[in-house]
Design a protein that fits this description.
Elements lengths: L3 H6 L2 E4 L8 E4 L6 E2 L8 E2 L4 E5 L2 E5 L3 E2 H7 L7 E5 L2 E3 L8 E2 L4 E6 L9
Parallel strand pairs: 5-11
Antiparallel strand pairs: 1-2, 3-4, 5-6, 7-10, 8-9, 8-11
Length: 119
């Protein structure tokens, strides 16, 4: 039989029942909980997750990542977009060295060809 403290300290991980969400529900002991910046709907989050604002929406990452890594995760060709990180436009040459951290704001704008025909 396990002592009560061993059972209490064990974290139980469950997927939420909403398939459109990537959110996880964690039952952690109080001393292991980390405050979240994800908003009022999620009071606690797993340690190590990073919440950013991506094109105006909350988005969670496994940890700090470069702009290049974020674009790869989103399956976006970095040659066809402009990226703004915390209100500063990131030069394409700096995509590998610019790191996105907890609470950062990122805007990704895709270039679209076309327009009105010439007259």
């Amino acid at each position: 039989m396990r002592p009560a403290s061993a059972t209490r300290d064990r974290a139980v991980l469950r997927l939420t029942e909403r398939p459109q969400s990537e959110a996880l529900t964690l039952d952690l002991p109080e001393h292991a909980k980390v405050p979240s910046a994800a908003g009022a709907g999620a009071t606690w989050r797993r340690s190590g997750l990073v919440t950013i604002t991506l094109n105006g929406e909350p988005y969670q990452l496994d940890g700090p990542v470069s702009v290049s890594a974020l674009l790869a995760r989103l399956a976006i060709d970095g040659r066809r977009v402009a990226v703004e990180h915390n209100l500063v436009v990131v030069r394409r040459a700096s995509f590998d060295t610019t790191t996105i951290h907890e609470g950062d704001t990122v805007e990704v704008v895709n270039f679209v060809g076309g327009g009105a025909p010439r007259r």
